[in-house]
Design brief:
With 116 residues, this protein is mainly alpha-helical. 84% of the residues lie in helices and 0% in strands.
């Protein structure tokens, strides 16, 4: 168990790559489907109002995102991490599935540095 917790930062890095990669891939497919344009109205409506399943997933995502955003801010300030704003910007402009795991990865590295 100790070995797993010792290397947890690699898990967070893997989630960062998977989250950013898949998000980028599906947005790219959407752009291709819309003849090279990002249709923000369709993007928003497809996740909020298509059906009850989409609404459920959207509310689940937004609740987790809000909690994770506050965690980034509060934990980053508590640990006196540099450039907390960068994780928030990446979360908004790339993907939450990219920004939050990246913050967790950098947090683990910061905690290791503090131990030494």
């Amino acid at each position: 168990m100790r070995k797993i917790t010792k290397n947890i930062h690699y898990f967070y890095l893997l989630l960062t790559l998977v989250g950013g990669g898949f998000t980028f891939y599906f947005v790219l497919l959407g752009i291709i489907e819309h003849n090279g344009k990002f249709d923000s109205i369709e993007f928003i409506s497809s996740t909020w109002i298509d059906n009850y399943y989409a609404k459920s997933l959207s509310l689940d995502f937004w609740t987790g995102t809000i909690a994770g955003t506050f965690f980034i801010i509060m934990e980053g300030l508590r640990l006196k991490m540099k450039r907390i704003w960068l994780y928030l910007v990446l979360t908004v402009f790339v993907a939450y599935a990219f920004g939050f795991p990246l913050f967790l990865f950098m947090r683990e590295l910061h905690l290791r540095k503090m131990k030494n």
